[in-house]
Each structure stands twice: as structure tokens, then as C-alpha cells.
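Input for the complex:
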Amino acid sequence: MGRLLAVTSGKGGVGKSSVSVNIARTLNERGNSVLLIDLDAGMRCLDLMLGVSDRLIFDLNDVLNKNKTLEEAIIKASNYSFDLHFLAAPLKEKPDPAALYDLITYACTRYDFVVLDFPAGAVDDLYKALPRYAEALVVCNADAVSLRDAGIMGDSLKKLGLMSVRLILNRVSFQNMRRGITANIDEAIDGCGLRLIGVIPQSMDIYVSCCSGKAIEPKSRAAKAFVRIAKRLLGYDIPLMSYKKI
Ligand SMILES: Nc1ncnc2c1ncn2[C@@H]1O[C@H](COP(=O)(O)OP(=O)(O)OP(=O)(O)O)[C@@H](O)[C@H]1O
Ligand SMILES: [Mg+2]
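Predicted:
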């Protein structure tokens, strides 16, 4: 049985889609089969971030409405020698949560990881598609607004009874933390009350990757941050202690 990662946030624009793409790519590069699904109906973007928009024919609703099988609708988004499987969000109509639940359940029997990129905002009907074994990753920046919304989101996700709800702190500027402009790591954890699984720096490599559709430069700090998160997800003991010095 594969694992299900639900990438969410309270506030919009904090980096969910960038995190979804890079966690999916990194897990895939480490030998796991991965299906990445864009759930942001009407505002899809992962096809652009993966550089496959010119190959899109089918989307999630084609599978949910049984026009196509999952295997027919996925796109293979090659990343070096790896094949990340990708299913695009519908252009308009929101996916039906019950049908999506069934698809997710099936996909988890076929892949090591299924990664869901949720739209921003409070827990709504779409979350009815999540089985209890889903692991939520709440993406958040270190500013007060983002942290408050992450806390609210985290509480709602915990109420759904999900297996785990963890925090990814994205767009972190250690300079801003040292200068007291944003929360530091400890303050961020306290601010939203979630267990931290990783810290991703503010990074031009991530921005360029999202704009170009190409993978992040593998030796960059950003790529290494995603490797640490992937390893933690895979059960390796990678300490978070070094952040405490900030
Ligand atoms: N760590 C980072 N460093 C630099 N730029 C980043 C980082 N993370 C995300 N970005 C950039 O921020 C912008 C918003 O990111 P993204 O689309 O992933 O956010 P989102 O949370 O999915 O947004 P939405 O709520 O609209 O779905 C993108 O241009 C992306 O390239
Ligand atoms: Mg997004």
C-alpha cells in the first residue's frame, strides 16, 4: 500500500505547488514510483511547473467521470532518467470528493507515493476525498499571517483524524529571522503548533525551476532541503537541530 501526501496551506501563495513538485520529484529520484495530482481546479499550474503543458490532453475529471482510465490520463513527466506520473487538474469543474476518494484509494495500490497539491484555504468538501491514512504537509512561510493560517489549517486537519499533520516552512530567509523581521524556527513551530518536517530556503533556484519547468539544480541548497524532507518521510533520522541556532 502506497503512502498519501496531502500538501495544503491556509494562506495562498506560500509554495504548496512548488513543494508538491519537488517532493514528488525527489521521492521519485530516490527510486519510488510517484503519482502527483493537481487538485487546484480552475487554477491548475503543475503542468507548467513540470514543463509538460504542451502534452496535456486529459485531466482528473476525465478519470473521475470514467471517460479515461488513470493509466490513459497520466502524463509521464521525465526528470533526468526518472518518470514522475502526473494527473492535471480540471480547467473548471471541481472534482467530486467521493469519486476522488475512490481514485486515491486505487492509486495508493499502484504507487509508492501519491502526492496531492491542494488549493489554498480552509478545509472544505474536497477534503472528504482524504482517507484517514493521508499524511498532511502544511506549507507555511515565517510571517505572522501565514503562521496563523497554518495553525487554523492544522487544527482542522487534525480534526479530520489524519494519520499525521506536519509543517514545512518555506521561503525561509535566515537573515530576516536573525533581524527579527519574521519568526525564527522555534517561534514558527510555536506559532502554528505543528511538528516540523523541513525548512526550505528562499531560493532563486526554486523560482527559476517553477518558471522554466525544469528540475532544480541538484547541488543547490534548495535541492538539498528537499532531499532532507524526502529522507525524513522515508524514515531516516535527519536531525532538525541545526536550525535551532538561528
Ligand atoms: N522557496 C522558494 N523560494 C523562491 N520562490 C519560491 C519558493 N517557493 C515558492 N516560490 C515561488 O512562489 C510562487 C508561488 O508558489 P506556489 O505557486 O508554489 O504557491 P502555492 O501555495 O501553490 O500558491 P496557490 O495558493 O496560488 O496555489 C511561485 O512563483 C514560486 O516559484
Ligand atoms: Mg498552488
